[in-house]
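ARCHIVE CARD
CATEGORY: sequence design from structure
SOURCE FIELD: tokenized fold
FIELD CONTENT:
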């Protein structure tokens, strides 16, 4: 991650790490096993991660998940909540 920070902004690194993968899966059309991606709404597939700091300001927050990751929601189930 530190290498990417040298050449890209934190928002750009986040898009590379998360957004592009969802776009690629969506391109599979009818073979897409996940349904609707990229939105948080009823019927859509979404995982939610909440950090103690904004990763768009400094993506290094994501690398130190033990100290910064506060909430994990996957498939509608809360796996971690330390708020």
């Amino acid at each position: 991650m530190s290498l990417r920070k040298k050449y890209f902004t934190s928002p750009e690194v986040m898009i590379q790490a998360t957004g592009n993968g969802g776009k690629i899966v969506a391109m599979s059309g009818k073979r897409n096993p996940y349904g609707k991606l990229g939105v948080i709404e009823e019927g859509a597939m979404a995982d939610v991660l909440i950090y103690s700091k904004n990763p768009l300001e400094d993506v290094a927050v994501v690398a130190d998940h033990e100290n910064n990751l506060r909430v994990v929601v996957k498939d509608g189930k809360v796996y971690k909540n330390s708020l």
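CARD ANNOTATION: The mean pLDDT is 85. The chain has one domain: 2-81.
SHELF: design records, drawer C
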